[in-house]
């Protein structure tokens, strides 16, 4: 028989035997949990013996099976590699919530694959090289995806503990401004600050700040003239106008004069986005067009942006 055919026969035989071994290894694992580890040892001995037989029948398929002295070593390596791959696959199936473990036939068929891959690594160069590349790619990809899933779960749990719905985390873009801080303690809030080159220090507190908040709710007519509440102050009787359907402009003046001094004017734009309201507010030291842009350019924050904000405030969750 041609060498390449003999290699394929060996790999097919190892795969088939590995599929049979899979059920036995699962049973041995369960029995070990109930205090019967000797069953696992018996399965291991049986598995190695079966592989020695497969290596004997297809002796010329691999350098390690060609000589009797190394055939046992080949069988042990294939069994160990297959068992390790089987365990890793079961872990990945559980961690990634894949459907493979729910079907016994699929488990049996795929269970022989790690044993065949181990045998392919020990056969000839034209099976070893591609197998090694595939194994490295699959393992690397699985580790990356599993870690990302763990991180996503950890960050979602962090937000849940903080009582912040993920859908309320937004960011925005305004020319000449950059995010200065993000707060997700109770109500999600993004603060932007001017970064204009050579700009003098503001004459009064908040002159170069825009605050963006997102909340669930509607905006009935009664809310349009309700008290205007911002991070910089409050205005009791604001004026309100609907610039276009779903976008309102509110302006007002703070009562009295704060100690830090200001023109005391406040402005807010309210944008309806489905079931959410985006509120961008500032003092009248910020141009109305910029506050309007902050509302109109608001978008849901990406996972990377959310994680960066949480890391900056609280550090990575669970670490």
Polypeptide structure, described:
The chain has 319 residues and is an alpha+beta fold. It folds into two domains: 3-160, no CATH class; 167-314, Protein Transport Mog1p, Chain A, CATH 3.40.1000. Helices cover 51% and strands 19% of the residues. It contains ten helices and eleven strands. A seven-stranded antiparallel beta sheet has the order 2-3-4-10-9-8-7, covered by helices on one side. Strand 9 and strand 10 (276-283) form a beta hairpin. Helix 4 (68-95) packs across helix 6 (113-121). The protein is rod-shaped. The two termini are 58 Å apart. 30% of the residues are buried. Residues 197-201 have low confidence and may be disordered. Keywords: Membrane, Transmembrane, Transmembrane helix. The chain crosses the membrane at residues 7-32, 38-60, 72-92, 112-140.
Strand and helix map with partners:
Blueprint: H1 3-33, H2 37-57, H3 63-66, H4 68-95, H5 104-111, H6 113-121, H7 125-162, E1 170-171, E2 177-183, E3 189-194, E4 209-216, H8 221-224, E5 228-230, E6 233-235, E7 239-244, E8 247-253, E9 265-273, E10 276-283, H9 288-296, E11 299-300, H10 303-314
Antiparallel strand pairs: 1-11, 2-3, 3-4, 4-10, 5-6, 7-8, 8-9, 9-10
Helix pairs in contact: 1-2, 1-5, 1-6, 2-4, 4-6
């Amino acid at each position: 028989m041609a060498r390449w055919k003999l290699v394929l026969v060996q790999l097919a035989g190892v795969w088939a035997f590995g599929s049979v071994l899979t059920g036995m290894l699962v049973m041995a694992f369960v029995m070990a949990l109930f205090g019967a580890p000797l069953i696992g040892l018996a399965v291991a001995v049986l598995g190695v013996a079966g592989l020695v037989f497969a290596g004997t029948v297809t002796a010329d398929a691999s350098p390690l099976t060609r000589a009797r002295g190394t055939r046992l070593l080949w069988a042990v390596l294939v069994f160990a590699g297959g068992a390790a791959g089987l365990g890793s696959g079961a872990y990945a199936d559980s961690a990634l919530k894949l459907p493979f473990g729910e079907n016994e036939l699929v488990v049996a068929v795929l269970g022989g694959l790690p044993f065949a891959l181990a045998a392919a690594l020990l056969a000839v160069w034209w099976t070893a090289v591609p197998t090694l590349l595939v194994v490295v790619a699959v393992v690397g990809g699985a580790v990356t995806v599993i870690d990302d899933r763990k991180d996503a779960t950890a960050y979602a749990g962090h937000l849940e503990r903080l009582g912040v719905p993920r859908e309320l985390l937004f960011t925005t873009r305004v020319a000449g401004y950059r995010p200065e801080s993000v707060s997700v303690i109770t109500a999600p809030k993004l603060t932007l600050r001017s970064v204009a080159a050579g700009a003098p220090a503001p004459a009064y507190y908040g002159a170069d700040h825009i605050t963006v908040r997102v909340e669930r709710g509607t905006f009935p007519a009664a809310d349009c003239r309700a008290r205007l509440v911002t991070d910089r102050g409050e205005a009791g009787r604001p004026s309100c106008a609907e610039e276009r359907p779903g976008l309102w402009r509110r302006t007002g003046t703070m009562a009295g004069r704060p100690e830090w001094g200001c023109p005391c004017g406040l402005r807010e734009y309210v944008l309806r986005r489905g079931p959410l309201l985006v509120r961008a507010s500032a003092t009248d030291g910020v141009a109305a067009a910029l506050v309007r842009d902050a509302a109109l350019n608001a978008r849901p924050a990406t996972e990377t942006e959310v994680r960066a904000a949480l890391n900056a405030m609280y550090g990575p969750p669970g670490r």
